[in-house]
Write a structure and sequence with these properties.
Elements lengths: L2 H16 L4 H12 L5 H18 L1 H16 L8 H26 L7 H17 L15 H12 L7 H11 L4 H26 L10 H27 L7 H13 L1
Helix pairs in contact: 1-2, 1-3, 1-10, 2-6, 3-9, 3-10, 4-5, 5-7, 5-9, 6-11, 7-8, 8-9, 9-10
Length: about 260
């Protein structure tokens, strides 16, 4: 792989992993346009880069959640109003439907992953969800969110395994529809994505470990990961600002235009 391709893929991954435009959909588009299929280990490097970006931006939330994990598990039956404990509970609950849908998709529908038509339909659905999110969102913070919202957002996250469906777009919109403050929904969305991304990456590595390192040079690995981390951090900051300003739906026209173009190809 050429260094320029590694850099470009890192930038694309960093932007599309967090912005509500579907990173998997853009990977499908890139592969069809360029004829380049990135090696598995390089894809893992890109995911590590975006996770580093989220980990740094949300480091305070993550540290609080880790400290609160034992108490959160004890308080499952009794309930809690502590925001860190409730965050842990919501993330764990979200992981259940995400894992079920992810494993089911891997077993029965993984052949859809490279389809431009499926990607186009997914992007159109994402556009519709983003547009309908205009003016939505309530006043609930993480501490006051019912636990069922974790399952609801986890369902949205699981459905985003289909190319073209944006994970961040669907989960943030789901949280807002459940009455969460937009920024609270966004931060929770980012936190619940981290175990999902790690789990999906680990599963992919186990399934294809024989050829995982093929075609990867250390320089390309580091270049792609660094580009994904830097652009991912900037994308996260920008998205949080847009969500706070009630401009989350700004990405709907882009998703709609790209989705329609893919269906016409």
């Amino acid at each position: 792989m050429e260094p320029a391709i590694a850099l470009l893929l890192g930038i694309v991954q960093g932007l599309t992993e967090w912005l509500p435009v579907s990173s998997s959909g853009h990977l499908v588009i890139f592969e069809h346009l360029s004829g380049v299929r990135p090696p598995l280990f390089f894809n893992i490097a890109l995911h590590l880069g975006t996770l580093l970006a989220a980990g740094w931006l949300l480091r305070t939330d993550i540290a609080g959640a880790l400290r609160a994990t034992p108490a959160a598990l004890r308080a499952v039956r009794t309930g809690t109003t502590d925001p860190d404990e409730r965050t842990v509970q919501l993330v764990l609950l979200a992981s259940i439907p995400t894992a079920i849908i992810g494993f089911s998709f891997d077993a029965f529908a993984s052949g859809w992953l490279g389809s431009l038509q499926i990607t186009g339909v997914g992007l159109l659905v994402t556009a519709g969800v983003l547009w309908l999110s205009r003016g939505r969102g309530g006043t609930l913070d993480v501490a006051s969110v019912p636990l069922v919202v974790g399952l609801w957002m986890g369902l949205a996250q699981g459905l985003a395994v289909l190319p073209g469906l944006s994970r961040s777009g669907l989960t943030i919109a789901a949280g807002m529809a459940a009455g969460m403050r937009p920024v609270a929904a966004a931060r929770l969305s980012f936190l619940m994505s981290m175990p999902a991304i790690l789990g999906a990456t680990a599963l992919e590595l186990l399934q294809e470990r024989e050829g995982a390192l093929a075609g990867v040079a250390p320089a390309e690995f580091l270049l792609g990961m660094a580009a994904a981390a830097i652009t991912g951090f900037l994308a996260l900051r920008w998205l949080l600002a847009l969500v706070e300003q009630q401009r989350f739906h700004w990405f709907a026209p882009y998703c709609g235009l790209v989705g329609a173009a893919l269906l016409l190809l």
